[in-house]
Amino acid sequence: MEPVDLIYKAIYILSIFGVTLLIATYSTYAERKVAAFIQDRIGPNRAGPFGLLQPLADAGKMFFKEEFIPANSNRALFILGPGIAMLIACMSSAVIPFGDMLLVGGREVYLQAIEVNIGMLYVFGVVSLGVYGLMIGGWASNNKFSLLGAIRAASQNISYELAMGLAIIAILMISGSLSLREIAAQQVGFNWNIWYQPLGFLIFLVCAFAETNRAPFDLPECETELIGGYHTEFSSMKLGLYLFAEYINIFVASAVMATLYFGAYNFPFMENLRAAIDDPVTANNVVTIVGLVVMFAKIFFFIFFFMWVRWTLPRFRYDQLMKLGWQILIPLSILNIILTGGGILLKENLF
Amino acid sequence: MTENLFYFLSSLTLLCALMVVISKNPVHSVLFLIITFFTISGHYILLNAQFLAAVNIIVYAGAIMVLFLFVIMFLNMGKEKETIKTSTMSKVAGTIAGGLLFVVMIAALKDADVVGYNPDTYTSQTGMVESLGSVLFRDYLLPFELASILFLVAMVGAVMLGKKEAGEQHF
Questions:
Q1: Does residue A235 or residue B116 have the better pLDDT?
Q2: Mean pLDDT over residues B69-75, rounded?
Q3: Quick one: pLDDT band at residue A194, thresholds 50, 70, 90?
Q4: How many whole angstroms separate alpha carbon B74 and alpha carbon A319?
Q5: Contact residues on chain A for B129, CB-CB shorter than 8 A
Q6: Both B71 and B3 in a single domain?
């Protein structure tokens, strides 16, 4: 690899990291504003114009609070837990193609940090590791409520991972590739996977809610039963890291959904836009930049959707959660695989 | 570079695997086992087998070890470690059994020669998903399907064992 490429990669990885953290920070603000809107309140409006500095004020408060470690906790793992949650949350955005290719001075610059041919499996692997931060933190607190929260998180994640994996298999059947860049490139224009996989998308969406521990699946931290669940004993920035990791997970889940089902950076009439500009280099760059904006618009829509659901739907009961996962979503996703297989065969033989 | 990486990964693997056995706390053992799986995945990546590396993490670190941790957290074994005493007899028996296994392994590996790769026939695509898929579904289709039947039988067995028993009726 040439030094220029290396420098570009470093800049891109750093900027993705920064953008991830920025979006997660402002998701907390957006969450409170959305909640306020839905409940007919005003929401944060004191810190800065429209309360825009509220996330910074929150972070400052978190950092200056007392850091309390329970006497009989497992000290090392208690500190490690939030760190693991944060580390794993930040890992998965590496393979997501946020945009197509820019041509800068005759050099092809892809707007994706790492292109691996197992991109989808990488995301899935990182998602499946996400539960360790919760489990370790919950267990190390040496508190019954925390332990119950951790156990709930583990069983919930394992149950919904299965349905999620099966929903992804249907996508892989029609795309024939594990690489996220290729899956994104196949959905050119308005040829998005959602038209072929509506059922698969629904299953994936429900599983994404469960994997990120968001309402209506936020049983690991449900206040009415478990006080605060796995983060009962955590205070100061350790609690902040757990909450922050949840928002990063929401961002990544939204990005993955946009990439897999909603055409990533593709938008309708992109070929018309490309043809309308004479200079091919400018045309490519304009289309790519519009695509980048479109991608982030899709991600923001999904983040909004996560919040919308949280403030609209009540929480499931635990047996309902398990029943939904094992008895409804898994059979449905197997049905989806069979339907997709049938569809592929029909398309090959009839058309 | 690759060689240094290999030695680093290998020593880390051995160290973590050793810590699995040495740690007093079972939760620490499980966590060290998870790190061991990660380092093994690192070895797979060094061997250019990305698919195997990812699947190793998903299946072992992501699913099986979560269940291990789940069970161990419920058992809460760390608390009553004073009550578990290993008798001298079992220590001696363990040493002899382990030593014998070690001797067998040395005997088996003594005359084995390492097959290096041939640069003429080597393709970097061997470990990739496409070639793995075509090998599994063309050359080894029957064993692959038989293995899936084995898994199905195991699954049915697990469901049978986990089912509630009503009175004298067993199924």
A1: A235
A2: 81
A3: confident
A4: 19
A5: 117-118, 178
A6: yes
Backbone angles phi, psi at A217, to 5 degrees: -110, 25
Of B25, B27, B66, which has the smallest distance from its Cβ to A154's Cβ?
A: B66
Residues B1 and B74 in one domain: yes
Report pLDDT for B165.
66
Contacts of A132 in chain B (CB under 8 A): 34, 66, 69
Provide the pLDDT confidence category of residue B168 given band limits of 50, 70 and 90. Answer: low
Backbone Cα Rg of chain A: 21
Name chain B contacts of A117, Cβ cutoff 8 Å.
Answer: 50, 128-129
Q: Which pair of structure tokens corresponds to residue B113?
A: 């020669």
- Chain centroid to CA A14: how far? 18
CA A186/CA A219 separation, integer angstroms: 37
Please judge whether A121 and B34 are an interchain contact, meaning their C-beta atoms are less than 8 angstroms apart. Answer: no
Q: Which of B55, B57, B73 sits opposite A147 (nearest CB)?
A: B73
Number of compact structural domains in chain B: 2
Contacts of A131 in chain B (CB under 8 A): 66
**Does residue B171 lie in a domain region?**
no
The candidate with the shortest Cα–Cα distance to A62, out of A249, A219, A231, is: A231
- A158 to chain B: closest CA residue: B63
Domains held by chain A: number = 1
Please tell me which of the candidates A147, A151, A158 has its beta carbon nearest to residue B63.
A158
Judge if ipTM > 0.85. no
The whole-number pLDDT of residue A158 equals 84
- Show the domain range for A38: 3-350
CB count within 10 Å of CB A55 equals 21
User: What are the residues whose beta carbons fall under 8 Å from the beta carbon of A197, sequence distance 6 or more?
Assistant: A170, A171, A174, A261, A336, A340
Tell me the residue ranges of DSSP E strands in A89-159. 101-104, 107-110
Q: SS3 sequence, A283-351?
A: HHHHHHHHHHHHHHHHHHHHHHHHHHHHCCCCCCCHHHHHHHHHHHHHHHHHHHHHHHHHHHHHHHHHC
Domain that holds residue B138: 128-165
- Say yes or no for a CB contact (<8 Å) between A118 and B54: yes
> In sequence order, what are the residues at sequence separation of 6 or more whose Cβ sits closer than 8 angstroms to the Cβ of residue A11?
none
For chain B, the residue count is 171
Helix H or strand E segment including B123: none
Q: Compute the distance between CA of residue A146 and CA of residue A131 in angstroms, rounded to an integer.
A: 14
B132 HSE (CA, 13 A, CB side): 13
Chain-chain contact of A128 with B128 (C-beta, under 8 angstroms): no
Q: Calculate the CA dihedral of residues A247, A302, A209, A181 and round it to 10 degrees.
A: -90
* B71 occurs within a structural domain: yes
Q: Which residues, in sequence order, are CB contacts of A205 under 8 Å at separation 6+?
A: A257
Classify A262 as helix, strand or coil. Answer: coil
pTM above 0.90, yes or no: no
